[in-house]
Amino acid sequence: xxxxxxxxxxxxxxxxxxxxxxxxxxxxxxxxxxxxxxxxxxxxxxxxxxxxxxxxxxxxxxxxxxxxxxxxxxxxxxxxxxxxxxxxxxxxxxxxxxxxxxxxxxxxxxxxxxxxxxxxxxxxxxxxxxxxxxxxxxxxxxxxxxxxxxxxxxxxxxxxxxxxxxxxxxxxxxxxxxxxxxxxxxxxxxxxxxxxxxxxxxxxxxxxxxxxxxxxxxxxxxxxxxxxxxxxxxxxxxxxxxxxxxxxxxxxxxxxxxxxxxxxxxxxxxxxxxxxxxxxxxxxxxxxxxxxxxxxxxxxxxxxxxxxxxxxxxxxxxxxxxxxxxxxxxxxxxxxxxxxxxxxxxxxxxxxxxxxxxxxxxxxxxxxxxxxxxxxxxxxxxxxxxxxxxxxxxxxxxxxxxxxxxxxxxxxxxxxx
Amino acid sequence: xxxxxxxxxxxxxxxxxxxxxxxxxxxxxxxxxxxxxxxxxxxxxxxxxxxxxxxxxxxxxxxxxxxxxxxxxxxxxxxxxxxxxxxxxxxxxxxxxxxxxxxxxxxxxxxxxxxxxxxxxxxxxxxxxxxxxxxxxxxxxxxxxxxxxxxxxxxxxxxxxxxxxxxxxxxxxxxxxxxxxxxxxxxxxxxxxxxxxxxxxxxxxxxxxxxxxxxxxxxxxxxxxxxxxxxxxxxxxxxxxxxxxxxxxxxxxxxxxxxxxxxxxxxxxxxxxxxxxxxxxxxxxxxxxxxxxxxxxxxxxxxxxxxxxxxxxxxxxxxxxxxxxxxxxxxxxxxxxxxxxxxxxxxxxxxxxxxxxxxxxxxxxxxxxxxxxxxxxxxxxxxxxxxxxxxxxxxxxxxxxxxxxxxxxxxxxxxxx
Lengths: 417, 417
Known about the structure:
The structure is a homodimer.
Chain A: E1 6-7, E2 18-23, E3 43-58, H1 66-77, E4 81-88, H2 99-114, E5 121-125, H3 135-148, E6 150-151, H4 154-160, E7 169-177, E8 180-188, E9 202-207, H5 213-226, E10 242-247, H6 261-283, E11 291-299, H7 302-314, H8 316-323, H9 329-337, E12 349-354, E13 357-363, E14 366-367, H10 372-379, E15 383-389, E16 395-402, H11 406-413
Parallel strand pairs in A: 4-5, 9-10, 11-15
Antiparallel strand pairs in A: 1-7, 2-3, 2-6, 3-4, 3-10, 7-8, 8-9, 11-16, 12-13, 12-15, 13-14
Helix pairs in contact in A: 1-2, 2-3, 5-6, 7-9
């Protein structure tokens, strides 16, 4: 899609009427265990000045985090209206016997403090699975969070949802609908256990554009397929994936209620934000040293393009080759071959591309003589595109991933401790 | 299945009438490039004294190595009869424009030297994909290989098919059918790019038991499902996977032509050899420090058991946790949940087991309090079983894998060079 949007600061607070706050409450360990140490935020809240039409997509993992169950239930009860979102890191509140009870309690605490209906609260958790969530720190934190709510405090929230993330992920754009200036922004968390299926890791998006709940859900479901669902860090689909999209309508435009031109503009803005957050998530994959994209073109249909592109970026052998800057295109052909897609190997062209240039490595299914030095130079860059032309049609897609490194092993060999 | 077989030495030469030989011919680099250095074997041949009924299964990767195409074609033409097998390492002869021509030439060279029909030769290659196979070294090697053929030289062949393997893999058993002593043995190669689908990496099995081609294929297809196809090192399905099974009938038993009791004994022997080779492959996975098995029980059907067990052993997060001896059972629950199997998370029990004992970590889908020290002790062993009870039926399976380590990344970041 065309880039006809202005990038702006502000993340989830870029849209009018959204306040945020974040704090450290000590979910993983007592707040006072290491005196003098400033802990990173582990819980955040953001709130709209008015009720929002809300859409959400959730993990397809059959093992679902308790917050997923509770949020889904809340939005059903509230007819897809929400005002506030509370999210914590360090504990996923999943596979716990008292998980649902605790997740509901989090919503109740927020609802009471803000004096809003409990079912208009979205709750999300990320972190270690199978650890009992201590509720006392949350009980203490909620009044502090409510008290700290401010416009423009998006960063406090964005840092509170980080786990093994090395950078916060925020993106926002400004666009125009019917002469009204609209804003749409979001924040994302995630670094490992990322292989989204219908949704991904925690992602929160807000907008002041007026859009009906139905059209919001339509836009979100469509765009998630070509952004987050084309992302894989390690092939592991999380139990707590969720994307929520809240629209409070404060921009003043006439509410979008069908597939009009305004809806297309809105979807483009949503794509812009979600695609950029997806890139950020991929680049900050656990242990990653580079962003690896696979751009598939010439597919007979979109589904084939997605299957092929994801198979390439998920292959551990491709990922380690990218880490080693090894132009081993046999591994790319191998990954395309076992993808399950109905493709003709003898039509496939493959090339590598980066800011340093581009080099063809495979033509019609056969590896060609190529300049190894040039390929090495390209693969040493920190953003690489593996271009695959299936030469069978006109559909295409880009999938986002990263390399597989020593540090991925290090981070995950010892995550809980 | 019961262990009613006697383990014997001899690998592919354990069965009567099979001779083997191996040599170094310099496929990857000129033989004389490093004077004084003794290179490892890179090509081997084994031959039966009489024509064999033969069965084979091949990779389901759509990108197939040229040797796969040629072997399949040969066995079709020969009505599943074979006498000789030639196999090389260091070059997969895949994604090469002249691949089929070269693979055929390998068969022709063997056929001419042994004075047998060309279509009774099985050819297999393993190694780097997309490198032109130099045929001159093979032309020089074939007379040497034929000249060197001897009973009991199985080790020379078993070492010739090694790539990143750190140990050769051979297994053989003796069993009795109708009072006749039969032998069945095999060798396998493989360490990375292992995620078999209907077949796996190079595996050659020989027997002197008399079995019709039809029943051989039936036995092989059945046993491969519960052995090699339950193995994953890295989730990458190779382009050159193949298992061949040759029976020369020299044991003297009446040929097995239907599903009689003898067929069951034969299948048990085949399972014994293939399951042990599978364990060896898993334990020697690239960079692996330990064998990780997932034993799923209580599944409503075998397919569900296989999907669940493979999802657990394929999960990079489970694999890194095993490397770190971290009893992070949330990752196991996560992998079961995204496996795609139709299961009820709230019925799942999980425990860890090794020679050091066993510890329950999850009951009815919820993580339980467990002795972390005991779990650590178990997970520090070099053979670990993750036991998963789905509590929904009576079917079970064991899948074989290994941990994901720094060395996997190291080996594969720099494989071609």
